[in-house]
Amino acid sequence: MIIAQRIRELRAENHLTQAQLAKMVGCSQPMIVLWEKEVCEPTASAIVRLAEALGCSCNYLLGYDGY
């Protein structure tokens, strides 16, 4: 799942912990873990918030294009 990989990579590039990203996105830290481990996928609204927090486009998170 490309979303999980991109969340992990962008979080690391932005020097964010899972807890910090969760706070920025408005979800729990365990939810970030689930997304990064490919247990479940973020909702459309969560993808928008993730993109804003990580400084990329929704399309990039979904694997469609560059930043």
Automatic annotation (TrEMBL):
**InterPro entries in UniProt:** Cro/C1-type_HTH (IPR001387), Lambda_DNA-bd_dom_sf (IPR010982), TransReg_Diox_bact_type (IPR050807)
This protein's record includes keyword DNA-binding: yes
The residues covered by the HTH cro/C1-type domain are 7-61
Sorted alphabetically, which keywords does the UniProt record give?
A: DNA-binding
Annotated Pfam families: HTH_3
Q: Name one GO cellular component term.
A: cytosol
Give GO terms: molecular function aspect only: DNA binding; DNA-binding transcription factor activity
**Where are the membrane-spanning stretches?**
none
PANTHER family linked to this entry: DNA-BINDING PHAGE PROTEIN (PTHR46797:SF24), HTH-TYPE TRANSCRIPTIONAL REGULATOR (PTHR46797)
* Protein's name according to its UniProt entry: Helix-turn-helix transcriptional regulator
